[in-house]
Structures are given as structure tokens and as C-alpha cells.
Amino acid sequence: MNTDIENLFKDKVIGHPAGLFVLFFTEMWERFSFYGMRILLVLFLTAPFASENPGWDWPREHALALIGTYASLLYLTPIIGGWIADKITGYRVAVVIGCLIMTLGHASMALETTMTFYVGLALLVIGTGFFKPNITSIISEMYKGKESKKDGAYTIFYMGVNAGAFFGMMLCGYLAENYGWSWGFGLAGIFMFLGMLQFWLAKELFGKIGAKPSKIHEVELPQNINEESPAEQEEAEIDEKLNPFTLFDKVLIVLSSLGGLLYLFNDPLEKIEGTSLAPFELFGLKGSDVVVLGALVLFLILLVTRIARYIPIVRDRIIAVSIFGLFTVFFFAFFEQSLGSMTLFARDYTDRILVGDSATIFKVVDALLTTVPLIIITWVLILLAKKTFSRIGLSNIILGIAFAGLWFLVIFRLMDKFSQEGNEVDATWFGILNSFFIITLAPFFSRWWESKYNPSAAMKYGLGLILLGLGFAILSYGASDIPSGAKTASVSMIFLILAYLLHTMGELCLSPVGLSYLSKLVPARMIGFMFGVWYLAIAVGQKAAGTMGGMIDKISEQYSLGTFFLIFTLIPIGVGVLSIVLNPLLKRLMHGVR
């Protein structure tokens, strides 16, 4: 394995192994397809039958119930996909399986029938389970023994994530809104397939890295006489009391999982089809609510009883992680309105028509926003091809074809926009702002975290949640003149742009640091379990986002749309202030971990 790592580092692009950029482009195409399709979901499901681009004309509550369940499952299946890769397939094969299943999912959705739509969503959930955890595991394996370069590698990889999201939402959204939903869903599948091919054809670069797990385990020897062997280090760590899963723990895991899954599937089924998997009532509560509350209680019992069995320092740190996990649920429940109620706000309540000088300025800014990042990424592609064409020429060619297609679509879109007298901004265009702001602001936040002014974990969470709330405050102010029950309006787009800016700043405070603190606070042998809990927290947040976003019609009819966003202002700010107030307590619980 060490030989494969050394060989990988021989061919470098921008100071990193060429294999990293194969993963960069694979992730870029996967995120292109993922976000390109996901931003279309709420628009497609709620678009009226009687329109130029007819959708399914669902009530917003129904659409967001389904989207919440879909988004939640996307964070649960990676727990299973990661286990399968660890034990059976290896990371690389799992990534290819995931890509192939997701390609079939996009193709299925492009057919736009009821059955193929649901089959497509199911395939995308399964495919993401194979793909999501395992492509990052390959990076981790690539940089074994080279930890000093790992942060830089993840930064480059993170840029691939955002580049894919940026172009996916822009181009899939453009085709879907202007030429038909099938074009948007289909385009996502085409680039997913090309991304899979370029990755599979580049397997020679990786050697045994990410290959099928072997029953023969390598023994890592110390590099000098003063260094402890890994075995000795492990023994030093196991002074703590071990905490194996008891039969009671396993029963609680199974029951709480079944209860949670039943609720996830039952919620959209109950709202859309009017049928229930739990057709009973208890104390005035619907069966599905009883089940999910029961599952939550069982999960809390599991967490409390396991935490209680650890030694004090470990117990305190896991309590700190659990509190941060709760804040994460709140954050994503509100942040993920970007692909739900905020997208609906962009379509139905935002003035997207530009004329005269404002249209010209927007077209020029849009052109620069699109072409400059694409030029930079194309330059990276050329550097990769120069280094690796002799070894993985066919992979480079496939990647080149994908980029030729990307350039064609970008130029086609820009020519179409410049040929119009004015300009109507696509509702999906606003979704790209998150990726754009991340790419531009991430270096500043990174420098802040590395400076002497680096705030504590609780302060970062508090700041992130407050910024999130302030973004919704701007939307609440912008929507304050919209009368109760209004289905359309013409609010200035500046409110939505500023909201995305503040939300992205909040995300940069909270999202990247969450997993970092988890890895520092949790003992090595527990990381797998706690990563699962962390993904569960995000999954709960995703479902809560769909449920709360689905209340947009009820609240705006009874009160106003401004009130709807005011609720989304007050709760994150309140939770953010609570995080800051708890800062001294959380510092004590973390026992010196920064």
C-alpha cells in the first residue's frame, strides 16, 4: 500500500497527486448531477398543469414532504454504503456502483411518469449511499503518512463539490425551465455517466488504494527507535473502559431505526396519497407522530445509557458532541430551505425581469461568473492530461468530451441570454449563489480559523446560526408588503441575494468544522458510530426542513409570508444565542480540545 501511495505522489498537479484531481472531477460531475436535479424537484412538482412548462401541480406541502424524506434518506444510506465498501467491495468499486445506479436514476426521472419518477428517486438514494462516503475514504487512504498535505487536499476536493453544484444548478435549471423538465433531469444523468467512466478508466493510477479489502493486514513498523509502534499506541489508548454494544443497545438501535424509517416513508404517503402505515391514534396524536416520538425516546435512551458507561473525560466529550449535533439539526432544518421554500420564493415572489442597463449589467456579470471558473477548471484539466495521458489517456479523453459538452452548454446559454432584449433570471439561478459565495469566501474564513482570533466551537456554532437567522430576517423584511394568501409578488431580487450571502457565511462558520470537532472529541474506536449519529442529525434536519417549509401556504394564508420568514429568523438566532451562552460549559466538557 505504501508503494502505491508513493507512486501516486510521483505525478503531481498543483503540488498534489494526479489521482486527487481524478477524484475532484468525479465528485464535480456527481455534484453536478445531484444539485442539478435536486433544485428542479420542488419546481417540477409544484409547476401548474396549465403552463408553458407543465409540472405535476402538487400543493407545496406535498412536494416538500416528499423532498424532505428524499433528502433525509440521502444522509442515511451512506452509513450502509460505507459498511459494504469496508467489508466487501472496496471504495473504488463502491464509487462506480454508486455512479451507475445514480445514472439509471436520472434516466428514469427524465421519463416523467409517476412510476419512473419514484423509481428514479429510490435509485438516487441507493446510489448516493454507495458514492458519498467512499470517494472521501479514497482521499483519506491516499494521504496516509502525509497528513500535513491532507487539509490542502480536502480544500481542493471541496472546490470540486462547489464547482459541480454551481454548474449543475445553472445548466440543468436553465434547460429544465426553458426547454422542459426532461432536459434538466436527462442532462444530470449524462454527466454522471461520463464522470463514472473517467473515474473507472483511471484505476491504474491508484494501484491498490481503494481496492477490495484484503484479509491480509499490513503491519506498520515504527520509523525510528523513539517512535512507538501502532500496537503500543493502541494499548496506551485502551486504558479507558471498553463499551461494547449490549443486546439492549442493539434492540434500541433496531427499534428506533424502524420507527424513524416508518415516519420518513409515512409522512409523504399520508399527505400525498391519504393513506397511513400507522392507522391509529393515541392521546389525540396520529399514529405516525406516536411512532416517531417513540423512536426518538428510544434513541435518547440508547445515547444516555451508552454515554453513562464511559469514563468521565470521554463521557463529557461525547455529551459536547451530542449538543453540537442538536445544534446541527436546527441549522440544517433552516439552511435547507434554499432548495425548498427559498426556491419557491424565487419563482413566485421575486421580480426576475430585468430591462435596460440592469439587464445588460446582469448579463455581463453572469457571463463572467460562468466563464472565469470554467476557464480555471479547464486549465486544471489540461495540467492533469499533460501528466497522465500516457497512462490513462482514455480517461482523459472522456473527461475532455464532458468538458466540451459543458463549454457548449455554457456558450449556448450565454448566447441565448444576450440575444434577448431584456432578461428573465431563471428561478434556479439563485441556487448557484451558495456555491459562488463558498468559493469566494472560504479562503477568508480559513485564515480566520488559523489566526489567533479563532473562536471556540460553541462561538462558531452560535455565529453560524445567528447569520442564518439574519438571512431570513432580510427575506422577512422583503416580503413584509406581500398580503396574506398571495400566491405571487414582485419583490426585489436583492433580498434573496443578500439572504444567500448571509446563509453561506453561516454555513462556513458551522458546517466544515462540525466533523472536524467530532473527530477530535470522540475516541478512535467510536468514530464510526458517532459519524453515523452525525449523519442521523443531518438527516433529521433535512426532514425537518421539508416539514417546516411545507407550512409556507398555511402560515402565509393565515398571517403573511413575512411572518413565515420571521419564524425562520427568530428560532436560529435564539438557538445561536443559546450556543454562545453555553460556551463556558462546552469548553469544560471538551477538556482542552480546540
How does this structure look, described?
The protein is an all-alpha fold and 594 residues long. Helix content is 75%, strand content 2%. It is built from 21 helices and six strands. It has helices at residues 2-8, 18-46, 60-73, 77-89, 91-110, 114-142, 150-179, 181-200, 230-237, 247-272, 287-308, 312-335, 341-348, 356-419, 432-450, 457-478, 493-521, 527-549, 552-558, 561-581, 583-590, and strands at 12-13, 16-17, 281-282, 285-286, 353-354, 423-424. The strands form three sheets. Strands 1-2 form a two-stranded antiparallel ribbon. α4 (77-89) crosses α6 (114-142), α5 (91-110) packs antiparallel against α6 and α12 (312-335) runs antiparallel to α17. It starts with a helix and ends with a helix. Residues 217-238 have low confidence and may be disordered.
List the helices and strands and how they pair.
Elements: H1 2-8, E1 12-13, E2 16-17, H2 18-46, H3 60-73, H4 77-89, H5 91-110, H6 114-142, H7 150-179, H8 181-200, H9 230-237, H10 247-272, E3 281-282, E4 285-286, H11 287-308, H12 312-335, H13 341-348, E5 353-354, H14 356-419, E6 423-424, H15 432-450, H16 457-478, H17 493-521, H18 527-549, H19 552-558, H20 561-581, H21 583-590
Antiparallel strand pairs: 1-2, 3-4, 5-6
Helix pairs in contact: 2-3, 2-7, 2-8, 2-14, 3-10, 3-18, 4-5, 4-6, 5-6, 5-8, 7-8, 7-14, 7-15, 8-14, 10-11, 12-16, 12-17, 12-18, 12-20, 12-21, 15-17, 16-17, 16-20, 19-20
